[in-house]
Design goal:
mainly alpha
């Protein structure tokens, strides 16, 4: 399974939309989870889905203006709560 995103993609998107360090850290944790071979495929797919949602410009709530990253934070946090058993990241 390959991914089409890099940590640089995540950081570029985060800077463009002024994401705070908490959101960036969470997305980078998901990126690490998505690349670990010992993590089950279903968990890696969830992590990649959250990352794609974060990077994708089409959101439930547009990324421009105040509160633009709230939906991204909710998705990323929700996925992290789902995969929190994988704490050897």
């Amino acid at each position: 399974m390959t991914t089409d995103f890099t940590p640089e993609d995540i950081q570029t998107h985060a800077r463009t939309h002024r994401a705070g360090p908490t959101l960036i850290d969470k997305v980078l944790i998901l990126a690490r989870i998505a690349t670990l071979k010992q993590v089950p495929v279903a968990v890696r797919v969830l992590a990649m889905g959250a990352i794609v949602y974060f990077i994708n410009p089409v959101d439930l709530w547009p990324d421009v203006g105040p509160g633009g990253l709230i939906d991204d934070l909710m998705v990323v946090t929700g996925v992290l709560l789902q995969v929190r058993g994988w704490n050897e990241v």
